[in-house]
Amino acid sequence: MEPLKEMFNQAFYKDYARVFGDTDQNFNSEQFLADVIRDMDSLSLNGRLRNTSLMLRKYLPDDFEQALAVLYTAAPSLRRGYTALVLPDFVSLYGKDHFDRSMEALRYFTTFGSSEFAIREFLKTDLEKTLQMMHHWTDDENVHVRRLASEGSRPRLPWSFKLDAIIENPSLTRGILERLNKDPELYVRKSVANHLNDHSKDNASYLLEVLSSWDSTNKHTSWIIKHASRSLIKKGNPDAMTLFGFGKGLEIELESLNLSENQLSLGDTLQFDFKLTSSELAEQKLVVDYAIHYVKSSGTTSRKVFKLKELVILPGQTVLIGKKQLIQDFTTRKHHSGIHKLEILINGKMAGEASFELIT
Question: Is CATH 2.60.40.10 correct for 252-359?
């Protein structure tokens, strides 16, 4: 598989230089291309992105307003997606002294890729003023701009720095999220749920207080409430379980936890099944997950919880539940040889376990 950084490859930059040369007669396309690819091989994905911004600064007009005008004109002809993050990155680097103009630019450029990383530089510099602008964006007709209001202000946005002020005072973004908690677009609702889920790491009680106050009868809000609580549900947080009606005093028996193989290699499939039987006189609402204790290079283990199934089990009912999971390496997880433990979790509590040996 080609590395992600190859989104910024020589073919990309040739086209990039052509677009800016067509946009601005004073833009030296040949020299820009030579400069931007010179040390490209040694740079990471985000290193290439930042280097592109730096090289644009060198070849665009010195005046920020004039440079921005060129970016505006070029934007529709450039590739969309991750590489379009160069445009807001340029604004974050050189637009700090032009707040209003920069906010307009980030709003525009987010429709081509995303300004979620760039806006955080302004939040770091002037939190109150930037949050006021993002609050205003929650009413925007463009779905990308509404999402930016939530995504850009996430306390723990992946691939970015933490917003410590929002971690310490999560209510700072509550108004933004409440204006978006009925948004008809799934793209926005996912961001709101992820923003709230960030709080599960630092402010679980605040998260639950917010979710308990929202209208769960609205289908869009209900979706957000469920997905914002996913980490707390995986951890078996009692208050989160209560919020969703998962009982504390379960009358459930787990039987016949069976692994198809007790020894696996990379590329094999972990396959297991088990039975759940209710001994309660009333129906019970269950969330069933499983956890794997992965062996690390040090020989210690790290526990990872996976979603499995939600169900309502009737009095005396027995249900069979099974799962298959391919054992393969990812950029975020490398497997190591050793004994791995499998746990079955019912409403956050361990109900059964088994082990298998992995040989890498």
Answer: yes
